[in-house]
Design brief:
alpha+beta; 10 strands; about 10% strand; binds protoporphyrin IX containing FE
Amino acid sequence: MRRGSRYRHLVNAPHIEPELFTWEFASNPYPAYAWLREHAPVHRTRLPSGVEAWLVTRYADARQALADSRLSKNPVHHSEDAHGKSRTGIPGERSANLMTHLLNIDPPDHTRLRRLVSKAFTPRRVAEFAPRVQELTDHLIDQFAHTGSADLIHEFAFPLPIYAICDLLGVPREDQDDFRDWAGMMIRHSGGPRGGVARSVKKMRSYLAELIHRKREALPDKPDPGEDLISGLIRASDHGEHLTENEAAAMCFVLLFAGFETVINLIGNGTYALLRNPQQRAQLQKSLERGEQELLDTGVEELLRYDGPVELATWRYATEPLEMGGQRIASGDPVLVVLAAADRDPARFDEPDTLDLSRGDNQHLGYGHGIHYCIGAPLARLEGRTALATLLRRLPDLRLAADPMDLRWRGGLIMRGLRNLPVEFTAT
Ligand code: HEM
């Protein structure tokens, strides 16, 4: 029997509850999510950490929960986490004093910080960045195109978003390899030992604090101190209010963290899905050869829906007793919205388990919904489209160089992504 197929015949068996969070589940969680959607759409479960939480798996419930102001993002509301322990899935942020960021706060603080960052992180700034993303993409492919094989995660999907976000923030080029090392440590150990991660986050934090300080000092002397995002964040003001240095550091950190593992997974999961669906991939390749953009645009949205980078939205906590999907949720209970399950809900999407790059009406939840909707979506789309189109154009006979059953998925609750993606192609 193929791994991951064990539950398929059980979807119609209400009394046989699938085991969650096993190795088999990690490699293909979709049959188990189909069972939950059908038989226990709002389901209380014990997580591998021992903490109990509710999983929300139907599209309609998920969308509602993401916009429900009775569900707080602030960990102080967790009945077990009265000391404000972070559950964002961002390792080490608490010990590095980086908790005050968008994914851990509610209005009115969230509204203020989000307004400030939106003034600096504009779609225009992202659009102007397109040539640099193309340059980075080509440069990374140049490093391995002549070899005929590569691990696409390590050699391509991982460095691209790191260098991109560092450039955008204004981290000098000579320091960007330090970020690559710290970020590598953070994702290698996500779901694993934490000591090295905490050290890397602390180093990243002190570097960011120092850089923000330097840029702030430089501002008065330079009326137009460059277009980098850190300078933009420092300059941004709202009714005379600015970000404090601590808020600016936490903001840069969340932009870095939320902006790199997600994009790695978009490129990794997306390429993997294309390689496993040759007809769809061939259609995309032909449309790119004709110079068309449309299938690439709808295709990247479909890849986000089909096997998106963020499996579960970040932690939310009930601030009062409430009812959802027929279940009573107590005040202080954590609620986890399973984006990956909602985006395969047959009540919302026709043939949800089929990859259809031309799918219209694709209101997937891959970027979330409501006030915490992904602020980096324009950048993610730019990076995802550029990376996938350039890979298919430059390495047209790209193929998987491993048995899919031997691929490993990274641990951790929130993200869904491959550890490795070995590929082969004709060397150029
Ligand atoms: C394909 C790539 C990406 C995906 C799938 C993704 C997905 C998400 C999701 C699902 C959320 C909402 C989380 C929740 O409500 O619990 C979110 C929020 C966020 N994302 Fe992204 N993201 C991506 C790329 C990026 C990038 C490139 C950046 C920035 C450089 C970024 C920055 C953020 C930030 C700061 C938030 C918090 C917004 C808030 O709380 O107001 N993301 N993202």
